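Hi U.,

Before I forget, here's the chain from the pilot set. I'm dumping it here mostly so it's searchable later in email.
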Amino acid sequence: MVDKVLLLVRLPATQRTFELRVSADLTVGQAAGMIARLVQTRERERYFAGDDVGLMPLEGEHAGELLDADARVRDFAYEGVIRDGALLALV
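Structure:
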């Protein structure tokens, strides 16, 4: 059973990558919002966390596909779309 997933989240505007551990019980939308708010605190001059943020894999067969905001991180972990160390873009 997956409890948490370690993600590498890249901010495309700066190409900076953040390493974050998120709960598998969160929806992708909740995780993206939490990550966006955190990134905003670190990149105040370059990034503003809007209301409509998402996560998109940058590697693997689902690269370039926006993840369903209503699905749980756990669901994508079971499918192998998200795994520890997965590189995702914050979009």
